[in-house]
Amino acid sequence: MRSGLQQQEIGRSGYACLLDPVTCGLTLPLTLDDYLSLPHLLVSFSGREGIVDQALKDLGHSRRVQSALTHFSALPPFLIGTRAVATLPIHAAQSLAAVSGLTVCAAPIDLGEYSVSSLWQKTADNHWMRQVISDAFLAILPGLEAIYSG
Questions:
Q1: What is the pTM of this model?
Q2: Greater confidence, 2 or 112?
């Protein structure tokens, strides 16, 4: 950790899919066959492979990436009315679905979990604010877990 920074894990989260199920012609839950039949939108800073590609490779599969984007916020225009799917952190999928009308569903492959941490400067430590942020995350965690578990 860089000098002057503090970090604290406040929870764990996972991944979900974001799609337009009507345009995709699918009923949920999303099966692995359905998932593999859809074109994928990759969100990656590098624009190359991501966690999904490694998980699919471990299962002996691969996906067809239609487009690569560097920001989650760019996904809705690429997904609305399009036969495609994106796999991204649950919190991002829920936020984008709330403003776009897209649907969030469980990924049909195990992508594991990741740590959600708060990070702050030691010189700007505010215990009250850290608690507010932690409480807000923990308040939405049950909804995230419901999607993650399918």
A1: 0.81
A2: 112
